[in-house]
C-alpha cells in the first residue's frame, strides 16, 4: 500500500522535478556528436553511462558523445549564463524524485529500478548498459554538479568544487579538487585523490567515501546506515555523525573531532603531531 502511494506521487510530480528551461543549445544540429559552449559550470542530471570530465587550458566547455547515436538522441543540453545542464532523456533514464531525503525513485532503460524509503531499498530490477560514452572537457576550477543516478563518472584534476548528490550504486572517481560536497542514497562509491578546502559527506545506506590526500580545513561527515568514510591527508577540524553501523577513519587530524554516535558506529582517527 505504501509503495503504491509513493509511486502515485512520483507519477504525478516527476515531470516537475526535472523541468529545465526550454531550448536546446543552439550550436548542435540533430545529428551532432560534439558541442562547444562557454559557461561557468556543468551539471549532470541522471546521466547513466560512462562519463569522463577532463581539464584543458581553453575557456570553453566541450561535450562529446562517443559511440552510437547523437547528443540529441540521448540528452537535453541547456545553457544559461552560469551553467550547462546535461540531462539524460527520460526514455533512457527515468525519473528521480527526492522528497526531503526520504524517497528516491529511479527507473529507465539504462538503470536498475529502485525504490528507497528512508534507509531501506524496497524494490529493485534489472539494468542495461549504455552503448555510448560521454566526454566533457572543461576549464580548470570549473564547478561540476551531479544529480540523480549515475553509472560511472570520472573527473580529472579540476581543482574546482564538485557537488554530487546521487542515488543507487554509481561510482564517481575524482582527481584533485577544491571545497566539495558528496551525498548519496544507496551504495554509491566516491573516490577522490585529494581535497583542498572544505569537505561535506552525507550518505544514506551502504555508500563509501575514500579521500587519499589533501589539506581539508573543515570536514563534515553524516552517515545513516552502514556507510564508510576513509579520509587521508590532513584535516584541520571535523564534525562526525553516525546513525547505524557506519564507520569513519581519519589518517591525521589537528584537533579532536566532534563525534555523535547512535548505534554500532565506529570512529578511528590519529591526532597530528
Structure explained in plain terms:
The protein is mainly beta and 273 residues long. It has a single domain, classed as Pectate Lyase C-like (3 Solenoid). It is 7% helix and 58% strand. It has 2 helices and 21 strands. It has an 18-stranded mixed β-sheet that branches. A 3-stranded antiparallel β-sheet has the order 7-8-9, with helices on one face. The longest helix is centred in the first third of the chain and has 16 residues. The radius of gyration is 19 Å and the shape is elongated. The termini are far apart. The N terminus is likely disordered.
Helix-strand layout with pairing:
Layout: H1 2-17, E1 34-37, E2 42-45, E3 50-56, E4 61-67, H2 71-74, E5 75-79, E6 84-88, E7 103-108, E8 111-117, E9 120-124, E10 132-139, E11 144-148, E12 152-155, E13 162-168, E14 171-177, E15 180-186, E16 189-205, E17 208-225, E18 228-244, E19 247-253, E20 258-263, E21 266-271
Parallel strand pairs: 2-6, 2-11, 3-10, 3-12, 11-13, 12-14, 13-15, 14-16, 15-16, 16-17, 17-18, 18-19, 18-20, 19-21
Antiparallel strand pairs: 1-4, 4-10, 5-6, 7-8, 8-9
Amino acid at each position: 500500500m505504501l509503495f503504491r502511494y509513493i509511486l502515485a506521487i512520483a507519477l504525478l510530480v516527476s515531470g516537475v522535478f526535472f523541468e529545465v528551461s526550454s531550448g536546446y543549445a543552439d550550436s548542435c544540429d540533430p545529428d551532432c556528436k560534439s558541442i562547444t559552449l562557454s559557461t561557468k559550470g556543468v551539471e549532470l542530471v541522471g546521466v547513466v553511462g560512462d562519463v569522463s570530465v577532463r581539464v584543458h587550458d581553453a575557456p570553453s566547455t566541450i561535450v562529446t558523445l562517443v559511440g552510437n547515436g547523437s547528443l540529441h538522441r540521448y540528452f537535453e543540453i541547456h545553457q544559461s549564463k552560469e551553467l550547462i545542464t546535461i540531462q539524460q532523456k527520460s526514455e533512457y533514464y527515468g525519473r528521480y524524485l527526492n522528497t526531503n531525503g526520504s524517497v528516491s525513485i529511479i527507473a529507465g532503460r539504462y538503470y536498475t529500478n529502485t525504490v528507497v524509503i528512508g534507509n531501506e531499498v524496497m524494490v529493485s530490477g534489472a539494468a542495461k548498459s549504455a552503448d555510448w560514452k560521454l566526454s566533457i572537457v572543461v576549464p580548470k576550477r570549473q564547478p561540476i554538479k551531479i544529480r540523480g543516478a549515475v553509472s560511472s563518472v570520472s573527473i580529472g584534476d579540476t581543482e574546482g568544487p564538485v557537488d554530487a548528490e546521487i542515488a543507487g550504486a554509481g561510482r564517481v572517481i575524482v582527481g584533485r579538487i577544491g571545497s566539495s560536497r558528496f551525498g548519496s542514497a544507496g551504495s554509491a562509491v566516491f573516490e577522490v585523490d585529494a581535497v583542498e578546502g572544505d569537505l561535506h559527506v552525507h550518505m544514506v545506506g551502504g555508500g563509501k567515501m575514500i579521500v587519499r590526500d589533501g589539506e581539508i580545513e573543515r570536514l563534515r561527515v553524516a552517515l545513516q546506515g552502514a556507510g564508510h568514510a576513509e579520509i587521508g591527508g590532513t584535516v584541520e577540524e571535523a564534525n562526525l555523525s553516525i546513525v547505524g553501523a557506519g564507520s569513519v577513519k581519519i589518517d591525521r587530524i589537528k584537533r579532536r573531532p566532534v563525534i555523535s554516535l547512535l548505534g554500532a558506529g565506529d570512529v578511528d582517527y590519529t591526532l597530528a603531531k
